[in-house]
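Anyone up for a design puzzle?
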C-alpha cells in the first residue's frame, strides 16, 4: 500500500495534469467537506439510484498528459462497478439527484472506512476520495510536531487518528493527525533526503466542524501553497477538501463507451496478428504485442501501452467499421495499418 504521505505529496505534484476544479454551481468550495451528503438528505432507494445510474452508462477513466489511462468505474445496467470488477460496489449508496451527486460508503481491503463522492457534471465524473480515520487514546508520537496553540473546542475530539495498512510483518497503523487532551493539534513532519522540511506548516483553524491546515509544500523543483481540511462529523474525523494554490482539487474521470458490442476476436488475413476484446479488456498479440488499459470512444479504441525506456505510455488506436466486423490498427510510429476481421 502506498502510504498517505506519498499520496498527499502526489496530490500537489500530480494535480496539475490529473485534477480539475469542477464548474459545478452547487460546489462553492467553502464547505471543506467536498459536499458530503448530510443525513436525511438524498435517497438510498435502490430503484431511484439504479434509474439515475442508467442515465450515465459507460466506463469512466483518468486521462493523464503523459499517456496514462486508468479506468476507475464502469456503470452498466443501473449498477456501478470498480474498474474491472465483476461485482457491483457494495456498501451504502446515497443519491442527491438535484445535484447529480452519488455518495458511496464502504470498507476497503484493510477494513478502513471510505467515502467516495461522485459528481456527475457535463458527461464526466469529478471524484473525491475520503478516509474516515480510526481513533485511539491520545499519546505523543515520534515525528509529530505541534501546530499552533491549543484549540479548546477540539479537546472533545482528543485522540490519535489513523488508518490501517499491511506490511510483510503484518498489519500496521499509519497516523495522520493527533489531538491532545487540551485541543493541541499535532501534525507529521516530513523531510526530504537532505533532512529539509517538505511541509512548512503555517496555520491551523477550526470552525464549523472543519479543521483547516495551511502549509507550503516544497520538494525539488515543485512547490505550492496548499490547504488540507478535515471534517469532524458525527464524532468522526473525515478527509475534507484539498486545495492547491487556492484551487479545489478533485479527480476528473472522462466518460468512454462500453465494449459490449465489440466483444470478440479480430484477426489479420495472414493470421499473424489478433485483437482480442472482452467486456473490460482489449489487447493485440501475435506479430506485435499491445496491451494496457483501454477505452472506447465511438468506433475508436485506444490502448495505452507502458514504455519502460521512457517511463511513459504510448497510445495505440484501433478504428472499427460501422458494422463492427472489421478493425484497423495503425502503428503510432510507422503509421502502418493492419486490417483485422472478426
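Challenge accepted. My sequence:
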Amino acid at each position: 500500500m502506498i502510504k498517505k504521505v506519498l499520496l498527499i505529496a502526489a496530490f500537489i505534484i500530480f494535480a496539475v495534469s490529473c485534477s480539475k476544479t469542477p464548474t459545478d454551481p452547487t460546489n462553492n468550495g467553502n464547505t471543506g467537506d467536498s459536499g458530503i451528503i448530510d443525513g436525511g438528505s438524498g435517497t438510498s432507494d435502490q430503484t431511484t439510484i439504479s434509474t439515475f445510474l442508467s442515465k450515465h452508462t459507460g466506463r469512466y477513466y483518468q486521462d493523464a498528459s503523459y499517456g496514462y489511462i486508468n479506468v476507475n468505474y464502469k456503470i452498466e445496467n443501473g449498477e456501478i462497478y470498480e474498474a474491472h470488477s465483476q461485482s457491483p460496489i457494495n456498501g451504502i449508496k446515497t443519491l442527491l439527484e438535484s445535484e447529480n451527486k452519488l455518495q458511496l460508503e464502504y470498507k476497503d481491503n484493510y477494513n478502513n472506512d471510505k467515502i467516495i463522492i461522485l459528481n456527475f457534471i457535463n458527461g464526466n465524473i469529478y471524484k473525491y476520495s475520503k478516509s474516515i480515520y480510526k481513533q485511539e487514546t491520545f499519546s505523543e508520537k515520534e515525528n509529530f510536531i505541534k501546530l499552533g496553540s491549543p484549540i479548546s473546542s477540539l479537546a472533545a475530539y482528543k485522540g490519535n487518528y489513523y488508518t490501517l495498512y499491511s506490511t510483510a510483518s503484518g498489519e500496521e497503523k499509519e497516523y495522520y493527525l493527533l489531538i491532545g487532551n487540551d485541543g493541541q493539534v499535532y501534525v507529521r513532519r516530513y523531510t526530504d533526503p537532505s533532512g529539509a522540511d517538505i511541509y512548512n506548516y503555517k496555520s491551523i483553524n477550526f470552525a464549523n466542524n472543519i479543521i483547516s491546515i495551511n502549509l507550503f509544500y516544497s520538494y525539488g523543483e515543485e512547490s505550492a501553497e496548499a490547504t488540507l481540511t478535515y471534517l469532524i462529523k458525527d464524532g468522526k474525523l473525515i478527509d475534507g477538501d484539498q486545495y492547491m494554490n487556492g484551487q479545489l482539487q478533485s479527480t476528473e474521470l472522462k466518460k468512454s463507451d462500453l465494449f459490449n458490442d465489440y466483444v470478440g476476436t479480430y484477426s489479420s488475413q495472414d493470421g499473424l496478428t489478433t485483437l482480442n476484446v472482452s467486456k473490460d479488456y482489449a489487447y493485440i498479440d501475435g506479430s506485435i504485442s499491445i496491451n494496457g488499459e483501454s477505452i472506447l470512444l465511438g468506433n475508436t479504441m485506444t490502448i495505452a501501452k507502458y514504455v519502460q525506456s521512457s517511463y511513459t505510455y504510448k497510445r495505440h488506436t484501433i478504428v472499427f467499421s460501422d458494422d463492427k466486423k472489421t478493425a484497423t490498427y495503425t502503428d503510432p510510429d510507422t503509421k502502418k495499418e493492419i486490417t483485422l476481421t472478426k
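A detail worth pointing out: Residues 4-130 form one domain.
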